[in-house]
């Protein structure tokens, strides 16, 4: 044990989970582990769920949450990294089964790390973070189906959230016409500033939701919502279109039929950013580096420090979050 590590920790107290700001001793490295001076993390919906025992997001408490981080290597027992390297980490067990990004000093397996692209700053990396990584995977799923901007409109649900907001900026960079759906009717200006050409309500997406097949409206969709929203989207996707599904904010059950799949050849692609193979991650981060060059990141970013995390958790739980919250862990 050595030195002191400032962190935000969740602990179990009966049926409740409470947060506290602690000073804990730094731990030593095992083989293939890396010590990272954390510069930034971010707040994601999954992080907020970690503070609720009933969510079962966390394997066991106490734990330092934060499912992503960026920082600088200060010590390494992994052959791929050395002191001074700038790195980024998302997913795997970070902030779920192993202490995550809400600390000044993190120790984690080197196999969870990706070298930061040279034209992407440590802060920009966490403006994107897990949400941006998920959005980028969603865009890749659409592009891999051969869908082009001239093929039609792309729907983005949960558009004011992290995945939705960043997906809009990415699709804009690719030249797509974007329809943004949100339950926050007062955020039209925000969504258009990001790149949406049209903004509709979540109720507009759910209209005629009982139809097994509806009018062909969108060639593709990025959906971090799921539930009834997904069922309605599937019925409105055009021939050989695709839906990239990455979330469950709208529920886990989907009441749909086979008709979108067998009459229109619609593809439903599940997006998993947690276990995505490490050998493929560098490519996705290179795509994010490209997206970041022209994106209006200031519009969607708010910076906080470790002491403000619980307040932001509350905003997530009450659906008051717009854009991205970046956590500054170190100067």
From TrEMBL:
Every Enoyl reductase (ER) domain range: 19-327
InterPro entries, per database record: Acrylyl-CoA_reductase_AcuI (IPR014188), ADH-like_C (IPR013149), ADH-like_N (IPR013154), ER (IPR020843), GroES-like_sf (IPR011032), NAD(P)-bd_dom_sf (IPR036291), Zn-ADH-like_protein (IPR051397)
An example molecular function term from Gene Ontology annotations: acryloyl-CoA reductase (NADPH) activity
Any coiled-coil regions, as ranges: none
Pfam family, one: ADH_N
Chain ranges passing through the membrane: none
Domain of life: Bacteria
PANTHER family in the record: ACRYLYL-COA REDUCTASE ACUI-RELATED, SHORT-CHAIN DEHYDROGENASE/REDUCTASE
Protein name: Putative YhdH/YhfP family quinone oxidoreductase
Organism: Saliterribacillus persicus
